[in-house]
Amino acid sequence: MRNLDVTTLRSFVAVADLGGVTRAAGALNLTQSAVSMQLKRLEELLGQQLLDRSNRTIALTAAGEQLRSYARRMVDLNDEVMARMTDQVFEGELTLGVPHDIVYPAVPQVLQRFSHQFPRMKVHLISSNTRDLMAQHQNGECDVILTTESEVGAGGETLTTKPLCWIGAPGGHAWKQRPLRLAFGRHCIFRLGAIAALEGTDIDWEIAVETESDRTIEATVSADLAVHTMIAGTEPAHLEVIEHGGVLPALETQHINMYVSDQAAKGSKRLKGEVLDYLTDQLRVSYQMM
User: Fold this and answer.
1) Co-location of 42 and 186 in the same domain
2) Residue 218, domain member (yes or no)
């Protein structure tokens, strides 16, 4: 009887999800050679080539794609059993604050992995704007917050830096109309930068929608009644980056930063360290992959 090794499957899943051995090794705290050796042993055990190494980036073969879903389920089940059956039971609650516009696609994936690792921990997700989240962080109301800022503040860590881009309806024409109609939240920090960029051109513009609701903005933009700005890679599926060919002005870049509050962490020192470290590591990997 031949048995699959969960540690090897974990390395395979990490390579498949993160797109390479280097990133997978960093996420698993292993050397690149160790991960490569595990992948080689797995291929030898199954008698299948799982990775296509012919290009600069690693891709899954058909056999690799077939294995990935099985491997992920086995790793998740292993982690769930270990978390529930061992004496190291973590119970408590963490509060994570994330700006509305960068919740997707990273945060749901992070929360799913966190739940498998710590099934008795609860994560209270707060979705708000950067200004409010910073205030909550300073008041000790959040354990971890993410922000979108032009720089990084004291005690913060930049996870990634991304350009802002103009967003519109798929195949829309609102970006060609003059005055250019804009849809923004009242407290959106991207608003002033977009207006400043337009003021440096001869493009007439007007605020078509000013609201507290992100849903209202998305509905207006998806109806091709206005345009908006978002961090590249965070736009929802029903909106798209406007390929304007330089007709609209270039926008500034934004830092996605993370701030961790030791004072607000709940539970013992052991819980604080291990649980927060896992959550912040997963956030780092996910946003660096965006």
Assistant:
1) no
2) yes
SS3 240: strand
Place of tokens 């997700």: 125
Q: How many domains does the chain have?
A: 2
Would you state the structure tokens that stand for residue 185, as one six-digit string? 């939240």
Q: Where a domain ends, among 52, 68, 85? A: 85
- Residue whose C-alpha is closest to residue 96's, from 290, 243, 286, 252: 286
* Beta strands at 156-168 and 253-260: parallel, antiparallel or unpaired: antiparallel
CATH code where residue 103 lies: 3.40.190.290
Per-residue pLDDT of the chain (290 residues; tens, 9 = 90+): 689 999 999 999 999 888 888 888 888 888 999 999 999 999 999 999 999 888 777 889 999 999 999 999 999 899 878 777 765 567 788 999 999 889 988 999 899 989 888 888 889 999 999 999 999 999 989 999 999 999 999 999 999 999 999 999 999 999 999 999 999 988 888 999 999 999 999 999 999 999 988 899 999 999 999 999 999 988 888 999 999 999 999 999 999 999 998 764 444 444 557 888 889 999 998 888 77
Same domain as 160, residue 95: yes
pTM: 0.70
Beta strands in the chain (DSSP E): 51-52, 59-60, 92-99, 121-128, 144-149, 156-168, 180-185, 205-211, 228-231, 240-241, 253-260
Tell me: do 113 and 53 sit in the same domain: no
- 170 occurs within a structural domain: yes
